[in-house]
Every structure is written in structure tokens, then in C-alpha cells.
Amino acid sequence: MATIDITEKTFDGTVAREGVVLVDFWASWCGPCRRFAPTFAAASEKHPDVVFAKVDTEAEQRLAAAASITSIPTLMAFRDGILVFSQPGALDPAGLEKLIAAVEGLDMDEVRARVKARAS
Predict the structure, then answer these.
(1) How is the chain split into domains, by residue range?
(2) Is the dihedral of CA 103, 17, 43, 85 positive or negative?
(3) What is the mean pLDDT of residues 64-78?
């Protein structure tokens, strides 16, 4: 599966999906972003069951601000609509594979229980 571009209008609907959604916040002028892009694209081909989305922070400044993006690239991982990972910095291929495996391996009942406990 190729990566998809998302905008402020499509962000919520994209990350709310069931399953794993990875979102790469990037900009064309950002060297580390350009170096991470092929890694992200290659992983999207290896994991057709995962949604790989990209947000151009220059074009989507309000979305980047709403997501509290202060450094790029920033990678966010959502599982079943819940943000389970957010970290600035580019990952190497092995690091990205490790992240995908960790997100896929989460016990979502436990995650939902923690989210509920924090909200209380």
C-alpha cells in the first residue's frame, strides 16, 4: 500500500479507523524528513494492513499546531483510533519495523482501560 496524504479535513477520519495508522508529519525543506520518506514508503509496501499517512506541515499548519508538532519529522501511531505513540525524529528501517510490531502487539483492552483510568 502506498502512503496517503491527509489534511485537516481528513485527519480525524483517517486516524479513527480500526487497526494501525502511522502518521508522518514532515516538510519538504526538512533534510531528516526527506531521508525518512523512503523508509516510510518501503514499510508501507511491506505492511498493506497498516495505513501509512503523511501530513505536510507547511500546507497543514493548523493541523500540525493542533497535534502539538514542534519538531519534524514526527511519527505518530494510532491503533483503533487511540494515539499510542508519538515521537519526533526519523527512524531507521529496523526501528520502524520494531515500532510497527509493538503497536500491532498491543493489548487494546488494556490500552482502553488505561485511557479510561486517565480520563477519570
Answers:
(1) 4-119
(2) negative
(3) 96
77: phi then psi, degrees, rounded to nearest 5: -125, 130
- What is the bridge-based pairing of β-strands 51-56 and 4-5? parallel
CA distance 95 to 101: 10
Is 3.30.470.10 the CATH number for 4-119? no
Say what the pTM is.
Answer: 0.94
Burial of 27 by CB count in 10 Å (0-12 exposed, 13-18 middle, 19+ buried)? middle
List the catalytic residues.
30, 33
Confidence class for position 20, pLDDT limits 50, 70, 90: very high
What are 10's three cell numbers? 481528513
2 has pLDDT over 90: no
The answer to whether 62 and 8 have CB atoms below 8 angstroms apart is yes
